[in-house]
Amino acid sequence: MTKPLHIVGGGMAGSEAAWQAAEAGLPVVLHEMRPKVGTFAHQTGNFGEMVCSNSFRSDDDEQNAVGLLHWEMRQAGSLVMASADKHRLPAGGALAVDREAFAQEITDHLRAHPLISVSDEEVTELPSEGQWIFATGPLTSPALAQAIQAETGAESLAFFDAIAPIVHAHSIDMDVAWRQSRYDKGETEDERTAYINCPMTKDQYEAFIDALLAAETTPFREGEAAGYFDGCLPIEVMAERGRETLRFGPMKPIGLTNAHKPDEKAYAVVQLRRDNALGTLYNIVGFQTKMKYGAQKAVFQTIPGLQEAEFARLGGIHRNSFLNSPRLLDGALRLRSRPNIRFAGQVTGVEGYVESASMGLLAGRLAVAEAQGQELPAVPAETAIGALVTHITGGADAKTFQPMNVNFGLFPPLEDVRGGRRGRKERYKGYTDRAKQAWTNWLEQKVKEPA
């Protein structure tokens, strides 16, 4: 295996693909244009930079599809998961990380690997020779996006991903706010107190909604349309869908007891999650926004406990492009019209850090097998990774294809399990037990000669 694998993009997917391939003995050239060519969302040139939340979401591998995905990636020697585990922060049942230390860890490992070389030249064309993985993510550069569009003959689909603001911890009024994870979830005291909670009365909530709906937002650029992904809606868009929407979404008060007024039930609660290991920064959970900066400060400082809040970063929103993968990609993530090219990560239409990284993990392994003149068996659809790749490469309707997080709705149904909410715990455990066995078996299988 002397010919190198070229990987374009040093985000979650590209970093994971490079690691998997290099660890298997395949030389890799990792092309990352940052910081030489920047984007409006990234702040550094590090690999694996987290530009939105610092959370990998639930780490429960028995009752949650995301937690199961974490488990599968760990079993496969994932660099992303190893780095996340090393730099995790208390977050109840979630896996949150110190984003700067996490990205630096990934960067150090990739740059130190003897089989990985790094190029900072921007790739603007689809090559006709060599083996390539394009993991350019939702912020694919305009020149490369045009090349992809010219090759596929289709308009790129797009949605908008929003960034939540980050607050300096010292500026939060802890005489009003209190520390608690929802339902006191977590095995340690740090985890059970991982979130800072700001309570609202009914009058305060109504005033907040009024201010939110009246706030000035940043207009879209020419040619953009507000096709948001429902899993990451701007807070003002949620409010427009109904005045109670936020109270049953990111501001739900259930499972929380005000430490200052334990007998007084909050009407709504704003949660902030720790964003770095020092505990000096907290992001406002679910508060992605397209409000102008001045409006953000004015509106968010109406939240009890945040009246004097100092912001390390304000929220924002940006366009995310993705392929119509069910139409364009085969089951091995190859572009049908140019099978020397694979795509991985968010550009394929998966949504979320770990979902993106998992597609990079799979693409890297597929590339290694191909370089060896062999092929991997299809990943079982009963696994989290298999469910995702099945969805984006054929399980979804190409006419209505939209980005998707991993969820049990993508898995083949179980037999002989109870339906409805009452049977949910048993059903989810059934999904995860079945997936773990299938994934373990898949990892142990040997590659085979192509037919």
UniProtKB/TrEMBL annotation:
The keyword Aminoacyl-tRNA synthetase does not apply. Its EC number is 2.1.1.74. It is found in: Cytoplasm. One of its GO terms (biological process) is tRNA methylation. GO terms for molecular function: flavin adenine dinucleotide binding; tRNA (uracil(54)-C5)-methyltransferase activity, 5,10-methylenetetrahydrofolate-dependent. Its main location: cytoplasm. The keyword Protein biosynthesis does not apply. Catalyzes the folate-dependent formation of 5-methyl-uridine at position 54 (M-5-U54) in all tRNAs. This is Methylenetetrahydrofolate--tRNA-(uracil-5-)-methyltransferase TrmFO. It comes from Pseudoroseicyclus aestuarii.
